[in-house]
Each structure stands twice: as C-alpha cells, then as structure tokens.
Amino acid sequence: MQNSVIEPQAGSVAAGLAVPRLARQHLHDSVVEHLRHLIVEAVFAPGTKLNERELCETMGISRTPLREALKALAVEGLVEISPNRGASVYKMSTTEVRETFEVMSGLEALAGELACERISEGEIAEIKALHYAMLTCKAQNDLPGYYSRNQAIHDKINEAARNSVLRQTYLSVNRRLQALRFKSNFKSGKWDRAAHDHEEMIEALEARDGKRLGAILRQHLLDKRDAVMDMPSSVGD
C-alpha cells in the first residue's frame, strides 16, 4: 500500500513539510527511521519540543507507536524524555560535543587503518562510486543527497575494518553525532574542505596506506567538531 501525503498545519512542529502517512507494516521501524531522519537533517532542531498530538496527526499514527519510537530514539541519545515536559530533541552540551567527536575521531582513524589491511578491490570500487555520486550531489547543492552518500562511505570503511567490536561501538557513538555531522556542512567553506578530505581518503585507500588514511579520518572528524562548536545554536551550555 502506498503512503499518502498530508500537509501539516501552519505553526505546527512540522509546518511547511509534506509528511507521509506511514504504512502499518513495520510501523515501529518506520516511525523511528522517519523521526531520526527529521532530527538528523535538522528539520527538528536541538531543543525542539516534540508535540505528540501534532506528530500523530501528521504521520497518521496513534500515540502508542509514537511513544515507543521516542523511547527508542531516547536510547540512541537523540531524544530526551522528561516526565513533566514530554519529549524533545536532545541538545548536547559543549563538553559532550567535544568529547564525543574526539572519541569518534579515534574510532574512524582505527577503522581506516584496519580497512587498508583488509578491504577488497570490490569494496574500494563501491566506495569510489559513492564518492563520485557524492560530488555530483555537492555540485547540485544537494546537502541531504551528499550527506547520505558521505555517511555510506564512512560506513563502508568501518565495515571493511572487519572488527565487530569496533563496528558496534562506531554505530552507537555515530547515532548521537549524525545531526551535528550533517549541520557541519552548512557553511560552504567547510563543505569544500570536507569534500577535499574525501578525495584524499580515496587516494590513501587505493594505496592501502593505513597510517595516512587514519590521520586523514582523525583530522576530518576533529574539523567536524570545530565546525559544530562554531555554531552556538547546535550545542547547549
């Protein structure tokens, strides 16, 4: 069954968006993914209160699956649920942002080093294809398209490390940073620098130079941290 589309009322938490009604099949996963997508792409900014009634109306669901989805997102660190205030998009403190990006920079560096030892030629070809598609999105000023391919590249490098403990840790930490990684490209200069970093990543990966790729990935994430820290609205006190 195809999802119908409805327009949220003016002034609502999703005003200006065409939000699809979600099919009953796989409802829980669909609601979680849909809300995560809106948070990551900054449709719902950090600190935004998530009005249950409005969300239920715009997505065509009851409160039970919505509340279950919000709890799942709270576990991921994307949503904060207060007994008195309800649910809101979690806003990381300056310290949390700094420390989490520092951890992620180490995880990505390690993944890059291991991937250069273990990646297949076929996987490198897939990453290069994603890279060229990512650059096409950038040329079209398509930040969502760029970001989805960007994250797929990082994810494939992590998978190529062939380390299950690293994989699970990476996924857990990255969920908390996805929205901030997306926003770090809002300024064109920083977006240009990030794209250039990816060119260097491809070169290091093709050369299977783990030390170089690890260093590029580490600095890439620390630059993301600095870009986010320069946007006060993205972080709390």
If you had to describe this structure to a student in words, what would you say it looks like?
It is built from 9 helices and 4 strands, in the order E-E-H-H-H-E-E-H-H-H-H-H-H. With 237 residues, the protein is mostly helical. The strands form 2 sheets. Strands 1-2 form a two-stranded antiparallel sheet. Helix 4 (94-118) crosses helix 6 (143-160), helix 5 packs antiparallel against helix 8 and helix 8 runs antiparallel to helix 9. The longest helix has 25 residues, at 94-118. Residues 1-12 have low confidence and may be disordered.
Stretches where pLDDT is under 50 for at least 5 consecutive residues are 1-12
Oligomer: single chain
Q: Could you tell me the strand content as a percent range?
A: 5-15%
Number of helices: 9
Distance between the termini: 46 Å
Q: Mind telling me the C-alpha Rg?
A: 19 Å
| Main sheet overview | 2 strands, antiparallel
Cross-sheet strand order for the largest sheet: 1-2
Element order: H for helix, E for strand: EEHHHEEHHHHHH
Instruction: Name the shape in a single word.
Output: globular
Count of distinct strands: 4
Mean pLDDT: 88
**Proportion in helices:** 55-70%
SS-based class = mainly alpha
Keywords:
237 residues; mainly alpha; 9 helices; globular
Summarize the structure.
66% of the residues lie in helices and 5% in strands. It has nine helices and four strands, in the order E-E-H-H-H-E-E-H-H-H-H-H-H.
